[in-house]
């Protein structure tokens, strides 16, 4: 990736709906050149998708939590497909430490969250849950620095 590619990635992380015209003005190259670079970045697997940021509370999901789960290695084969099928799980990561998985989840209420935790405990074992009071830094991209 060169300096222009990094600038395109930074701009798209800020606004994935930026037009080719806007990107070309910011990068001082033509729109077709921007399109070609974006295609190259997509084919290289650097750009993997485009997303809208949604205010979960405004669509009825008032509770955000992080649930840590202790899994045995043999349970992962069942756990991963199950978790992928639950739309309330917005992210799940395999981690080091006392727990092997950490999930970010959203639910309309603590009752719904509690029901989900009970299912996880019954099917997979021990959990630890932290309910989010506020978010000081929301999901964001990483600002790529100019290395040239």
UniProtKB/TrEMBL annotation:
InterPro entries xref list: ArsR-like_HTH, AsnC-type_HTH_dom, Dimeric_a/b-barrel, Tscrpt_reg_AsnC-like, Tscrpt_reg_AsnC/Lrp_C, WH-like_DNA-bd_sf, WH_DNA-bd_sf
One Gene Ontology MF term: sequence-specific DNA binding
GO cellular component: cytosol
Example GO biological process: response to amino acid
PROSITE patterns per the UniProt record, alphabetical: HTH_ASNC_2
Keyword Glycosyltransferase included in the entry's annotation: no
Domain of life: Bacteria
One of the Pfam families matching this protein, by short name: AsnC_trans_reg
Domain HTH asnC-type, first and last residues per copy: 1-62
Chain segments annotated as coiled-coil in the UniProt record: none
SUPFAM superfamilies the UniProt entry points to: Dimeric alpha+beta barrel, Winged helix' DNA-binding domain
Transcription regulation in keyword set: yes
Keywords: DNA-binding, Transcription, Transcription regulation
Protein name as catalogued: AsnC family transcriptional regulator
């Amino acid at each position: 990736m060169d300096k222009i590619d990094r600038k395109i990635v930074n701009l798209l992380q800020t606004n994935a709906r930026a037009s080719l015209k806007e990107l070309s003005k910011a990068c001082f190259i033509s729109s077709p050149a921007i399109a070609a670079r974006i295609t190259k970045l997509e084919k290289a697997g650097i750009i993997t998708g485009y997303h809208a940021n949604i205010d979960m509370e405004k669509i009825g999901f008032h509770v955000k939590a992080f649930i840590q789960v202790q899994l045995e290695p043999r349970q992962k084969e069942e756990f991963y497909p199950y978790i992928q099928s639950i739309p309330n799980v917005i992210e799940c990561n395999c981690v080091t430490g006392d727990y092997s998985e950490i999930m970010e989840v959203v639910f309309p209420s603590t009752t719904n969250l509690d029901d989900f935790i009970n299912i996880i405990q019954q099917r997979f074992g021990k959990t630890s849950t932290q309910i989010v009071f506020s978010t000081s830094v929301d999901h964001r991209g990483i600002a790529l620095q100019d290395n040239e």
